[in-house]
Amino acid sequence: MSEEKPPEPQTPLFWRGFKTLHHFWNRSVLLMFTRVYIQLFVVYIALLSIYWGTYYHRDSRLHRLKFLAIVADDSYPNNEGVPVIGETFKSIIFSPTISSQSGWTLVDSQNFTSVLKPHNNNTYLEELTRQVYQQNYWAGCLVAPNASYDYYQAIVNSQPSVELNSSTVVTCIYQTGRDALTVSYYIEPVVAEISSAMINYASPYILGPLVKQIPQSERSQVVSKVLQNNATAPLLISPFAILLTDLRPNRNASVTGIIYIGLIYVIVITVQLFNFSTVIHAKIVDKVESRSYLYYRLGASQVIYVFLSLAYALVGVAFGISYDAAFGKSGFLVIWAASYLNFSALAGVNEVILPNLVAYDRSYVGYYIVGFLIINVCGITSALAVCPKFYRYSYGLPTYNFQKILVVCIFDTTKRDIGRCFGILVAWAVVTHLVVPFSSKLAIRNTEKLAKMRQ
């Protein structure tokens, strides 16, 4: 009998897998993977750096956030005392802590008219309100006229007026509706710092000097009389809190959706519109002549933009956002029109660029989508005043200008720039759709050329 040969040992599974991969990873495949991953790495580093760049050295540009200080407490009758409230306030806003976070324009009673050129003989408070509303300044503070002298008289006479108390000597005005992100991140912290400093400085730099102006023989009696009266005691014991006035507060959290996040969705939807419509257009193109097809493309696109923009406006209404602050009941129509122009402008850009990208190399479409999104988002989610100057291109983009129209309609901010915003939207919509026919012909030509090269 012949002896049976023992079975040959099987090759371990991992070794067989390694040999398979070894045959798969030939030189050409390895080079292809290397090229693709390096390309992905470089392109996305570049694209993401565009957005991250908006935060680059912001602290060094906070002085671009303009604040107005009207210190009308800059004199004392007969020069018998020092306007300590006004002087203390000036020392606070020009301290390193505050001045490093903001840029201040100081106006007093002497140069008030020459610097601000008040409208219709406005009072100090009226002019401060107008300057902030017109967005010449992000915020403004007013130290009431003759505040130190009036405060001293209120202490001495133990008769504070309704208009004068420790919480109305300094008034600060701003408007959240102008740009909620910028105000919450950069404006409100500065105002809070000033308010805290006024409280801390009240005793040593304001109340102490004012009390010392009282003749020494009467001082203890006057102070005792003030403190014993519940109506006058706050003059000496209440902190100097700043009276804050938000001209355009945000009372509906849903506004964040339509003004910020919703605009990002619009950009993505306009890109998807190109993908959705490509299938439909492919069925139509062979059934009509070229000129009729062009008219069809333009007409069909505008119809869908009208309905999508209507949906965008209606969603805001459904979540309780009021559009009638600036234009009454017509506010809805204004937002619908602006939304339509924004859709038309963004989709027009896609209609010009995407067909040529698809014809050349479909893999570049993903890069374009991310880049298109980031370039538009930089202007609507960043405080452009403190961004590098490069990002001022956002002032000319459709999304940024649509956002400004939304802000006007929802918060009733100044309307001085709304005409320019509509003009930019119209220009983008018209120019891009005028270029679409030429872009489409170029895409067809490139597609045919590449098809011949692959044969």
TrEMBL record:
Q: Which UniProt keywords apply?
A: Membrane, Transmembrane, Transmembrane helix
Which stretches make up the DUF3533 domain? Answer: 37-433
> Which regions span the lipid bilayer?
36-56, 226-245, 257-282, 303-321, 333-353, 365-391, 422-444
Keyword Nuclease recorded: no
Q: Does the keyword Iron-sulfur apply?
A: no
List the InterPro entries: DUF3533 (IPR022703), MNNG_permease-like (IPR053001)
One GO cellular component term, please give it. membrane
User: What name is this protein filed under?
Assistant: DUF3533 domain-containing protein
Task: Please give the organism.
Answer: Saccharomycopsis crataegensis
